[in-house]
Write a structure and sequence with these properties.
Elements lengths: L3 H23 L7 H26 L1 H11 L12
């Protein structure tokens, strides 16, 4: 069984990944040059993916599968007993 510290750290990395994706929507409105914005968006995308997959490794396959199923828009209208 994985330790609780690694499990919580994995979820922290997944949350940081989501924040990096949200940052992409904010960057265009910041008072920086276009070049800096382009580098910032690219870096945010890369960091978001890295943090997500490291977090996924730490929390485990079952949790990630359930998370991905939950985040799929097709499943949002399904009732609990249909899943």
């Amino acid at each position: 069984m994985k330790s609780k510290v690694l499990y919580k750290l994995g979820w922290l990395f997944i949350i940081i990944s989501c924040l990096c994706w949200l940052l992409i929507a904010i960057i265009p409105f910041l008072p920086f040059s276009t070049g800096v914005k382009a580098v910032s968006v690219t870096a945010s995308i890369v960091l978001a993916e890295v943090f997500f997959w490291i977090g996924a490794l730490l929390v485990g396959k079952e949790v990630v599968t359930k998370y991905k199923s939950y985040m799929n828009p097709k499943n949002w209208r399904m009732k609990k007993e249909d899943q």
